[in-house]
Design brief:
Elements: E1 2-6, H1 41-55, H2 70-77, E2 87-90, H3 96-103, E3 108-112, H4 115-127, E4 133-136, E5 149-155, H5 166-176, E6 177-188, H6 204-211, E7 215-223, H7 230-233, E8 240-247
Parallel strand pairs: 1-7, 2-3, 2-5, 3-4, 5-6
Antiparallel strand pairs: 6-8, 7-8
Bound molecules: S-adenosylmethionine (SAM).
Amino acid sequence: MVVATTRQPRRIELFTVPVGSPLRMAPPSNGARPRRGNVPLEEKQRRSWAQTYAETPYNQLPWFSPDPSPSLVRAVDRKWIQPPGPILDIGCGAGTNVLWLSGRGFRATGLDLAPGAIAAAKRRGHRRRSSAAFQEGSVLAMPFRKFAFRAALDNGCFHTLPLAQRGRYAAEVARVVQPGGAFLLTWIGREETRKFGPSHRPSLQEVAAVMEPSFVFVQTEFSDAHSRRGWGAKGHFLARYSALLVRRRSVQPKAR
Ligand SMILES: C[S@@+](CC[C@H](N)C(=O)[O-])C[C@H]1O[C@@H](n2cnc3c(N)ncnc32)[C@H](O)[C@@H]1O
């Protein structure tokens, strides 16, 4: 595994709900309040993300950027990911990365759990006359056939999942990405000291343990480039990982 450190100044690109914030549940459509404890985890997550996008305009969410993520731009510049795809953005939010890819000749699809994220992405795509596709759904049971994509990316979705769902995540990504295809995964790492962010930040070892049976880690970049700006200026250590993975041709047994 190659581990490189990047020092270029970069915008903050990955956020999620504050640490320890309870999952807020939107009232069900019949108006009755849900009984706590009865709602399966995945339904709670769906409601929570739906509510987030329903309550806040997409462009005021802390992770939103009108520009593509620097790790994706780098991967395309370096030809790690090449048109025409097809390429999938997992947890695409309001679709910035998908629309950017589509503008560069990729057949790009965005998937997100939140209806409001997909609606915003479609509106933005419509305004730009983009051919990008957007679909509502969960990465844990994706509405795509086996090996449907030549490449995939995830900019800030994986790290929002609790540990118990990460194995299913890896199996689903391995199912839809073709053997030999690239997967660009970007996440907030365990070393980050800022309180705001994913409640369980994955270490590189945790990500490797779950992804490595189906993917080879080709390159992993670690960046603490924000450490002199924003939260970094307040003395926080900000840890971003971006890994290029390639789908194995055959799934390997887990390392013991
Ligand atoms: C921190 S945001 C990042 C959004 C986008 N990738 C970006 O860079 O702007 C995480 C996104 O993952 C989505 N998400 C969370 N759990 C998901 C799941 N199980 N399946 C699909 N999307 C999910 C959320 O709705 C949210 O839009």
